[in-house]
Amino acid sequence: MKSILGIDIGGSGIKGGIVDVESGKMITPRTRVETPPDGDPYEISRIIHKLYEDFSWKGPVGVGFPAVILDGVAITAANISDEWIDMNVNNLLSKGTDSRVYTVNDADAAGMAEMDFGAGKDRKHGVVMMLTLGTGIGSAIFVDGTLVPNTELGHLIIKEKEAEKWTSAAVKEKHKLSWRKWSDRLQVYFEYLESLFSPNLFIIGGGVSKDAEKFIPRLHTRADIIPAEYQNQAGIIGSALFAASKEK
Question: Hey, is 68 helix, strand or coil?
């Protein structure tokens, strides 16, 4: 069994756990800490280092991060401080530890988990789109099982707004939208995605996926729409899988 510490940095929470990357299973309970309100790099780094200590971890670490990531450097920042932009996240998070850190876009990480071991494991042909509905909207696209990284489709413009500012799970909660009204917004968004990418399958992740029966049946697209299997654990598992791929 090969294990790696996976960490998922989100706009509202930082989650971590040790993952058996050969089976895609968590081998420790998930730990969650609130994300600092301003998403400051050094506050988040302090929390990550505390997770290292809590897990008594010394090996490689995979980190899912809410940004476009190129070779460990944050090119954008979503729902966190703009101070992250152009920063080498790998270097900052590994500083003062014995760990090798590998950073990947958070939705890409979630998609890897679902494609390798979850809802998409038997769907390796055609276009599969993973959407994570949470504080924002993350996206991951796979073509014949291969990831197209850093798509960030939550920032598409819908109704003159960024999609995630109109139809994320956080918007549903903030504005107390009913499942029907929120599903109407999702329908507009999914129709737009379908017009652009013609996917064979949508996989819906994020914490709201545990209530999939309340909104997925209200959505009507040519592509199949199914809930993620790993829900809020997908980012942790996928981050660990990404680190494992870099260690080969």
Answer: coil
